[in-house]
Amino acid sequence: MAVKKKDSYFVTTLPGDGIGPEIMSATVKVCQAVAAKQGFKIEFKEALIGGAALDACNDPFPDETLKQMKSSDSVLLAAIGGPKWDANPRDKRPETGLLKMRKSLGLFANLRPATVLPQLADASTLKPEVVSGVDIMVVRELTGDVYFGEPKGITTKDGERFGYNNMCYKESEVKRIAKVAFDIARKRGKRVCSVDKANVLDVSQLWRDVVIETHKDYPDVELSHMYVDNAAMQLIRNPKQFDVMVTGNIFGDILSDEASMLVGSLGMLPSASVGDPSGPGVFEPIHGSAPDIAGTDKANPLATILSAAMMFRYDLDRPEAAQAIEDAVNKVLDDGVRTGDLGGKVGCKQMGEEVCKRI
Ligand SMILES: NC(=O)c1ccc[n+]([C@@H]2O[C@H](COP(=O)([O-])OP(=O)(O)OC[C@H]3O[C@@H](n4cnc5c(N)ncnc54)[C@H](O)[C@@H]3O)[C@@H](O)[C@H]2O)c1
Ligand SMILES: CC(C)[C@H](C(=O)O)[C@@H](O)C(=O)O
Ligand SMILES: [Mg+2]
To answer: Is the pTM of this model over 0.90?
Structure first.
């Protein structure tokens, strides 16, 4: 909602599934620590989404949750999904709830920063000289593309099963996400690389045309274009060439997971899902529910904790709280505290406590 700074906030938490409750619990404690230190209040109230919601009321995104979110100043989401629900029909899958949430709240812009912290330059599988200094903002379109295109389904054609989805974008959808990317670039390195597959796909040709047209209002920002296959390669070859990358829903999903390995772990990348200024944003790590480590206290909560920092900056008008969280995360890493994904031995709960101690 991007509310004005106030003394007391109401925030919905959506712990979801798998490691979700563990990383959410650590994050809420960090938020409370920063609120106490800086003299304001946050009331957190949980709501159901994903598999947890399916188990409780057979709906992956209950109306009750939407209603509560709409009355909140902001929303923190951990992660949804897991093998328990993988065989469900599409409308009863946790992922369907997540997509419905994004669409219902008009969250068309997903900002996924991939910033290599100096302390983690050796955590990447790539050489430190390739990744150190990387600071990329992936601007992923979040409510269009093949994720939402119609028609879609599985049918029988010519005597065999036939599956189809439709990759589509309206001009207005491309224009509004391009504007978000150019506006962000203005506050950063003033360079936008638009990623598409215009050499093959008509929808990508439209994407490219509209990005070029929108760019006319941003002469101070440099625009380049790259095909998605090349972009995937360039991210590994020379990631420092990128400032802001703007791309569609599915390419952004894939490229941001790839970018996380420049930083060192998927467990480090936060995100902000924003769009409709009249409603709350949703702040969520880019990773999933990590069923392979759920319930073992092995998850890295930092992506969710850093998403909370984005919440304070983008939604709650508390940049000093965002900074305090980011500084505390930096100090934790300076002190060599690491969860398993970063080669350390510290558990999820302790990592949260270590951040709290440094607030
Ligand atoms: N936004 C979301 O809620 C979201 C995002 C991606 C995937 N999912 C769902 O999550 C489930 C699992 O998907 P997946 O395995 O492909 O992706 P995933 O992101 O859950 O996990 C991929 C790998 O990264 C590791 N990992 C992820 N987050 C971590 C963290 N914070 N700390 C340490 N390690 C971490 C996991 O252990 C796993 O090995 C699926 O149901 C999928 O649909 C949800
Ligand atoms: C779980 C899935 C629907 C989701 C997506 O593809 O958007 C996830 O991968 C993400 O990145 O948030
Ligand atoms: Mg993803």
So the answer is: yes
